[in-house]
Amino acid sequence: HSSETTCRIEPQADVGGASYTHTSSFSAFFNSVPESPREVDTKALYSILDVTKDANHTQIKKAFHKLAKEHHPDKGGCAEKFRKVQEAYEILKDPDKKKLYDKFGVEGLKCGGGPTRAGFKGVERTLYKRANKTEDLKYPLKVQLHEMYCGSVRRLQLNKDKICPSCKGNGGHPAGIGPCQSCMGRGIHVKPNGILSQWHHCQQCRGTGKRIDPRFICTDCKGARIVKFSKRLEVRIEKGMQGGHKIVFRQEANEAPGMVPGDVIVCFEEKRHSLFKREGMHLHMTKHITLMEALGGFRFTIRHLDDRILVVNSSPDTIYRPGDVKAILEEGMPAYGDPFTLGNLYIKIEVDFPTSITPESLQVLAKVFPIPRPIVVPSGADQVKLVSVDIEEEKKKYQRYRAMQKNAYDEDQEESQEQPQCRTQ
């Protein structure tokens, strides 16, 4: 079994902008940060909150509330101390910021969310690992149950961004490329904001830190540094796979200069089957039979997921009741990774009773079945009538009634709280 599906990897919102220039921007920015031989202070913020460096989140939060209450300007406290307490808490309450501070100190936070040049290599491997990669593409693939039973191959046609082979992602000839004058080649603009600093990509160079002389712009990509590219991927659906299974194609997502391509992640969504319902390795189905078949036996066929025809015969001298469940061993789903191990096929029997019956038929049945016992009806007993109902709809009515009761109770409680209360002497 094989089929082909076309899926689109949409280009990122701004080629050369915030979507993929973190690495080049950060690299350009940190290259401008001077080396710092001094030891990094990673204890100052803990001292402000009067806690030790190994304090947990609860202890930090408790210390903050205590100091904030003590130094709050509205209560006669020092505004400057209150501001420092707030800034320290804002960093230490955030696990990522706290981790960054514990390793690189305040200087690491000031540099647009990164460390000083001296410590950049370590953080590049850890905290900015994601920023150095384009966004992963998650593609939901609807898979038929028979494909997971027999195995199959699906083909996806991917349309994605690829680094321009003509200019090798530079956007133009190297002779016409120079530093952006707006951001001084950094690719970002940094705005101080207390202990932290805010940064955003330079709009003039779209975060690249470079400007291209119009005379030297690449004719293939028009300076965009990427071109459109189409590629076919084969998705192998193995026997026994289930909905929710993921197949990852490493580095097959959009490409961008200075970044590692993200992954294409195909997520299986199992489509509902008209006859079988899957439960792990087992299959379930429901078979409706007549009352005559329930009493006298039956025979029917099942078309399995691989198009085999199974012939099912009832056991002799067996009466089948509504709700009975029978099994056909080893006719379920194969185990993933071990296709020779099979689950079972469970069949739930439902007996369809006749909607009406003639008096003549009742007389015949009376000769076969026991006559119902007569009951004694005491005088004054109430005669009632059975009516047909939809039990699910009845449950919904009861739920609505309960909700109305609760609302009415809540209103009564509010009114009682508004009444003046008598105090016991």
Task: Order the strands across the largest sheet as they lie in space.
Answer: 11-12-18-15
Low-confidence stretches: 6-37, 112-130
> In angstroms, what separates the terminal alpha carbons?
87 Å
Number of helices: 10
Helix content: 25-40%
Q: Average pLDDT across residues?
A: 81
Q: Give Rg in angstroms.
A: 36 Å
Q: How many extended strands?
A: 18
Largest sheet: 4 strands, mixed
Shape: flat
Briefly note the structural class of the backbone.
Answer: alpha+beta
**Strand fraction band?**
25-35%
Order of helices and strands: EHHHHHHEHEEEEEEEEEEHEEEEEEHH
Describe the structure.
This protein has 10 helices and 18 strands. The protein is flat and about 105 Å long. The longest helix has 28 residues, at 391-418. Helix 3 (57-71) packs antiparallel against helix 4 (79-92). Mean pLDDT is 81; it is low at 6-37 and 112-130. It has helices at 22-31, 44-48, 57-71, 79-92, 95-110, 120-126, 145-150, 291-296, 359-368, 391-418; strands spanning 2-8, 137-143, 152-163, 177-179, 188-193, 196-201, 210-212, 226-237, 246-249, 264-270, 277-279, 282-290, 299-303, 309-313, 325-328, 334-335, 338-342, 345-352. By secondary structure, it is α+β, with helices and mostly antiparallel strands. Strands 11-12-18-15 form a 4-stranded mixed β-sheet.
